[in-house]
Amino acid sequence: MRIGVTGSGGKLGRATVERLRVDGHDVIGFDLAGTPGAGFTRVDLTDFGQTLDAFLSVTARHDGLDALVHLAAIPVNGLVPDAATFHNNITVSFNALFAAHRAGIRTIVLASSITAMGFPFDEAPLALPVDETYTSANNTYGLGKVAEEAIAAQLVRWTPETSITALRFTNVVGADEYATFERAAEPGYRRDLIGSWIDARDGAQAVALALAHAAPGYEVYNVAAPESGVAAPSREVAERWFPGTPIADDLGEYESLMSTRKIRERLGFAAEHDWR
Asked: Global pTM?
C-alpha cells in the first residue's frame, strides 16, 4: 500500500514510518518540519487546502494514497497555552480526517490517547484494568482526543465502507529512554499513567496491525505494553492508588492497568520490548 503518515518526524512517527517501510509499504511522510525529499513533504496541516492537496497527490512524491496514519499533534499540554493546544490539534485532525474523506481514502488509523480515558486519573476509574469503554477528558489535550474520536465515528457513518481505527496510546518511550525505569520501584512512579507505557517500536507495530486488520467501521484500541512500567505487582499498585475500585479477578501479576486485552485478542498485538 501507499500510506501517508502525518507527524512523521515525531517519536512515534519515525518508528511507524520505519516499520511500515520494512513491511514493504510505500510511505509518504507529512509534517511541518523536516527536509523535503523522497518519501517526505512539508505540509502545514492547519491549512485544509494544503492538507487536501497533499493527500490527493504531490508531484515527484505520489499520485494518491491507499491509507492514512494520522499522528500529527502538539503532543502534550504545557508546550503552548491550553486553548492553543486544543485549537491546533482539533483543527489538524479535522483537516486530516475530512481531507481523507474528500480524497477517497477509506483506511485510516488515528492516534488517540490515554488522555481520552481519564488521565491523570485524579478520579478513580470505574474498574481496573481500564478498557476502551471508559471515556473521560481532564485537560484540553484529552478533550481534543475525545472530539477527534467522535468526528471519526461520525465520518464512518457518512461512508460505511470506511475503516477508521483510533489507537489510544499511552506514554511512548524511545529505545534510548529506558533509564527512566530506574525509578520503577518508587510508589508514585507513573501514577498519572496508571503505570502504563509503550515502546515506540511496539506502538508502530500496533499501527501496522491496525492497517492489516482494517475493516469497514470504527474501532478503538488501547495501546500499551501488556505488562506495567512499575516494579510492584499490579494488584498491589491498584489497591494503593485506587482503594475500593473493583479489580478484575483474572488480573495478571504485572498486567498493565491500562487494558490491552482487546488489541491482543483481536489484532494479535504482542509487545516485543520490555523494561524489566
From this structure: 0.97
